[in-house]
Design a protein that fits this description.
mainly alpha
């Protein structure tokens, strides 16, 4: 993947994180057309993964079967490309394909099926500690959902520590950090530890406001609102 395409995909990603989903989808589609022409597996995996995340985010507004379809379809294609080109791809790219597909399965409620993909993603990843921390946070959340509650909490706390070894001025690092904080907030609420839950959600909210992370900000606000109303109907 060349530098120009990296920049174009970064723009599409930034538009998604700013919740400008129509513009993001257009930017990703334009990238996709060029990447198919150039037969660039690395770029295609990044592009397809980014598109899957658009529809995952949209599912928080409307639980549409159309969005579910696109979440899985884009992720599955990214996985198939990674499997077909495994011998010549770097570990980080293969890791992204595994994690995107695992995330798609998790979004569709296939929790047990998602775990092996996140574990594979972590095993093959050649990324730095913060990015591996993002993967560990997903694994910890799934462990909790599958009944290994204390192990799951410990894994997410370990993930948070790994993420915080990164550049704390980076919006990507802060996005991963607030994701882990939100996950812990929901778990502590489910465990009946209201003060700890609110503390983690409040940390996430403050970071999200300061670093302009609208998706994480809304998530943290919703968590705090539910906790204050005594509700615990969270999806981890």
């Amino acid at each position: 993947m060349d530098v120009t395409m990296e920049k174009r995909l970064a723009v599409a990603n930034d538009l998604r994180e700013a919740e400008k989903y129509g513009e993001s989808a257009k930017a990703y589609t334009e990238c996709l057309i060029d990447l198919v022409r150039s037969d660039d597996p690395v770029g295609l995996i990044h592009c397809l993964g980014g598109q899957s995340l658009i529809y995952k985010n949209l599912l928080t507004t409307i639980d549409s079967p159309v969005y579910h379809y696109f979440v899985v379809s884009f992720a599955k294609e990214a996985l198939e490309i990674a499997e077909a080109h495994k011998e010549k791809l770097d570990g980080r790219t293969i890791s992204i394909a595994y994690s995107v597909y695992g995330d798609a399965l998790l979004t569709n409620g296939e929790t047990g099926e998602a775990l092996p993909y996140f574990e594979k993603s972590l095993a093959v990843s050649t990324a730095e500690a913060p990015e591996k921390g993002r993967l560990k946070a997903h694994i910890g959340g799934i462990q909790y959902l599958l009944g290994e509650k204390q192990k799951g909490i410990a894994t997410i706390n370990e993930a948070l520590a790994d993420i915080r070894t990164g550049d704390m001025k980076s919006s990507i690092i802060r996005t991963w950090e607030t994701g882990a904080l939100n996950g812990l907030a929901k778990i502590y609420a489910l465990e009946g530890k209201k003060d700890m839950a609110l503390d983690h959600a409040d940390q996430s909210l403050k970071i999200s406001v300061y670093h302009n992370l609208p998706i994480r900000k809304r998530q943290a606000e919703k968590i705090i609102e539910k906790i204050n109303f005594g509700l615990t109907d969270f999806s981890i």
